[in-house]
Amino acid sequence: MPIDAFIRRLERLDAEPDAPLSERREAYERLHRQHRPPDPAGLRFEDTYIAGVAVRRFRPQGAESGCVVYLHGGGWNLGSVESHHGITADLAARLGREVVSVDYRRVPEASYAAALEECAAVVTACAPLAVVGDSAGGRLAIDVAHHGWQGPLGLIYPVVGVPTPETLGDDAPLLSRADILALWQSVADDVPAIPGERPPTPAIEVLAVARDPLTRPLEAAVEAWRHAGADVGYRCAPQMVHSALHGHAELPAMRESWQAFCQALVRRIA
């Protein structure tokens, strides 16, 4: 699939920006459910609870011991274990490990602090081999690490530091600077005040996309983390946009970068 066709598909979600949040959530879930790839052969999953928090557990056939915790994106007010099912199912198959996807509560029904507490509770209970998060979930993963968890971290186009007009890159399809700043304002009062240049863990794998306002501050953070002594792997998918991970099965450039990211995580946790 050409990236422009993927962008047109997801632009439908912005067709009615003033629609009630409940309707936008339904549209978000429906679109990603309709276009997610089939589950890998032999994969099983179940919805359950860990530490009182709703999760979806993915178990590939012949899985090795140990699990990975996944924190989904969606701007802290969208997204779920269902919308990100295609990503987490594929991650479990590529890692050959169980993946625990956390269905943390979202803004505005719950605060960012409450979401972070739930994510940290699952991580503490699972003692995972790695924690992975995309976009808003990537920021939760960073803050879970600063909360005390110090294993390998996998970050896919996360929000790092404090987004400002000066630090963000240019507008791009599917995610504008204004979108990021507005979403940040919805959670800023509850986000831990930790400098973005402080490495969240000693071992980090990062996947960015070329057309994304978040890539500029992310690359600055990667440089700072390396300077501070962290072992950081970095790759950037050419021509790809924010949310392109949902199209990993259809977009060749995203598929290649995602595969490299997953292979790097395998080496981290082996």
TrEMBL record:
Record-annotated Alpha/beta hydrolase fold-3 domain positions: 68-244
Keyword terms, alphabetized: Hydrolase
Gene3D superfamilies, per the entry: alpha/beta hydrolase
PANTHER family, sorted: ALPHA_BETA HYDROLASE FOLD-3 DOMAIN-CONTAINING PROTEIN, ARYLACETAMIDE DEACETYLASE
InterPro entries: AB_hydrolase_3, AB_hydrolase_fold, Carboxylest/Gibb_receptor, Lipase_GDXG_HIS_AS
Keyword Metal-binding: no
Keyword Hydrolase in record: yes
One Pfam match: Abhydrolase_3
Membership in a protein family: Belongs to the 'GDXG' lipolytic enzyme family.
Name used for this protein in its record: Alpha/beta hydrolase
Database matches in PROSITE patterns: LIPASE_GDXG_HIS
